[in-house]
Design goal:
heterodimer, A: mainly alpha, 9 helices, 83% helix, 0% strand, B: mainly alpha, 8 helices
């Protein structure tokens, strides 16, 4: 499944181009907004998470929406086990999400000249957040894949589920950018991984129960 | 076989008895609600509020999030049963629980906003509790958006159940965990332990408990009514008598007719 997703993406490149353009536009817009300002870790963490969310949410559900648009969804239903389909797509989305997160963070922090106070906490926070985000958005994409107005609906139903994740992600990242207490940052990062584990534990079961319906 | 006049009379008396018991129960509940409402204006003020006389909205605010959270859990449980059994009956239960939960969420927001204006001087305080409940409201909204977007009944039931189950964790996190995180709790104006710290005691506590019991009973009754209406609607759909209200394609046939071969 992962190989199929990667090959499809490399053939069309729609997802990569969408994510790339959205990431770049977001970073440029944010950099212009805070031009010549010394921003705190709190604000930088919030802005970075908004940028990651804005870049990922329209692109990640495409893995399922594209199957229905191209008419290959039914073939996949006959050919593959639901758990394999979900894990393959989540893995692909997680890789895409983490790469997007890394590129976006590098651009954002480089443009605004922000120093990362605790690099390992920043890396852990970014990785855990992007994986949890990929798990949730993939599930929402699967749920709305056969609905009317699916592209708009995928974002609308994903965001309420992602807001708790963003709340914990911002708490974790702000500490790594030099605001707040170290213990709070570590606790928030543990919470972030707890959220990721919860999502990835429940989502395959939920997905399997609706995929072949 | 014809029923005797005694049987008819006996049957109608039993039916009349059932109706009158139900009627008396409803009248009793309405009377109790009226009495408790009056009592809520008569009890002495609670301590430690900026405007204690206006803090009485707490009586009606307090049961709303409790019931919204309970109904959210019920909605999740019925959704689980729907996915497990594929019986559309559970979808009706889940939808009913979530509809009522959504209603109580709206009431929580409305009463909370009034409390915020009276006690903190602004309609929207950006308090973490207010914000977290707004997010729960969005989750409920997304559940109904998903339902509205699927026209096929079976698919709508299973997809909505899946979303309700997936959303249960984040919603419970937003209600119970997020407002109690140390840095969030420190920044919040919202009282978290009014009852445990003894600010609410005596007659005030009795009124709070009575309102909670009565509103819970009322919501249980509303839930039963909604489920009965939903099951009837489902039955009619199975018999081809009507389409679901969220089905965008109207049926060409209003009522099925039987055509006799003799004509």
């Amino acid at each position: 499944m992962f190989q199929k997703e990667a090959q499809s993406e490399l053939r069309a490149r729609t997802g990569i181009i969408t994510v790339g353009l959205l990431s770049l536009c977001t970073v440029v817009a944010l950099t212009l907004a805070v031009f010549n300002m010394q921003i705190s870790g709190n604000l930088a963490a919030g802005l970075l998470w908004s940028a990651i969310l804005f870049a990922s949410v329209p692109a990640l559900p495409r893995t399922f929406l594209a199957e229905e648009e191209l008419g290959t969804g039914d073939l996949l239903r006959q050919w593959a086990r639901p758990h394999s389909v979900y894990w393959g797509k989540v893995l692909y989305n997680a890789v895409q999400g983490v790469v997007t997160g890394v590129v976006l963070s590098a651009l954002f922090l480089g443009f605004i000249g922000m120093h990362v106070a605790i690099p390992w906490l920043f890396a852990l926070s970014l990785f855990g957040g992007c994986v949890a985000l990929a798990g949730t958005v993939t599930l929402c994409g699967a749920l709305v894949a056969r609905a009317s107005n699916r592209a708009a609906l995928a974002g609308a139903v994903s965001v309420p589920l992602l807001l708790p994740l963003i709340a914990i992600g911002v708490s974790s990242m702000r500490v790594s950018l030099g605001s707040g207490f170290y213990t709070q940052g570590v606790m928030a990062t543990i919470g972030l991984y707890g959220y990721a584990i919860f999502t990835l534990a429940i989502a395959p079961w939920v997905f399997a129960s609706v995929w072949k319906n | 076989m014809q029923s005797s006049p005694w049987q008819l009379r006996h049957g109608s008396l039993r039916a009349y008895g059932r109706i009158s018991v139900k009627l008396m129960l409803r009248m009793g509940m309405a009377l109790a609600m009226a009495l408790v409402t009056v009592w809520s204006f008569l009890v002495p003020d609670a301590l430690h509020f900026q405007h204690p006389e206006l803090a009485r909205i707490f009586f009606w605010h307090f049961p709303c999030p409790m019931l919204a959270s309970t109904l959210l859990v019920f909605g999740g449980w019925y959704s689980y049963k729907e996915l497990k059994t594929r019986d559309r009956k559970w979808d009706v239960y889940a939808e009913s629980a979530n509809e009522l939960g959504f209603l109580f969420c709206l009431l929580t927001m409305a009463t909370g906003i009034m409390f915020s204006q009276v006690q903190w001087g602004t309609w929207w305080q950006n308090d973490p509790r207010q914000t977290s409940f707004l997010l729960v409201l969005l989750i409920y909204g997304a559940y109904f958006a998903i339902r509205a977007a699927h026209s096929d009944g079976d698919r709508r039931a299973s997809v909505a159940a899946a979303y309700a189950l997936a959303a249960l964790g984040p919603a419970l996190f937003l209600i119970f965990i997020f407002p109690r995180l140390p840095q969030i709790e420190a920044a919040s104006f919202h009282p978290t332990q009014s009852i445990m710290k003894g600010q609410i005691k005596g007659n005030y506590a009795v009124v709070v408990s009575l309102v909670l019991i009565l509103v819970s009973a009322l919501s249980a009754w509303l839930f039963t009514l909604r489920v009965r209406a939903g099951l009837l609607e489902l039955e009619n759909q199975k018999n081809g008598l009507e389409t679901h209200r969220s089905d965008p394609t109207p049926s060409g046939v209003v009522r099925p007719i039987s055509v006799s071969s003799e004509n």
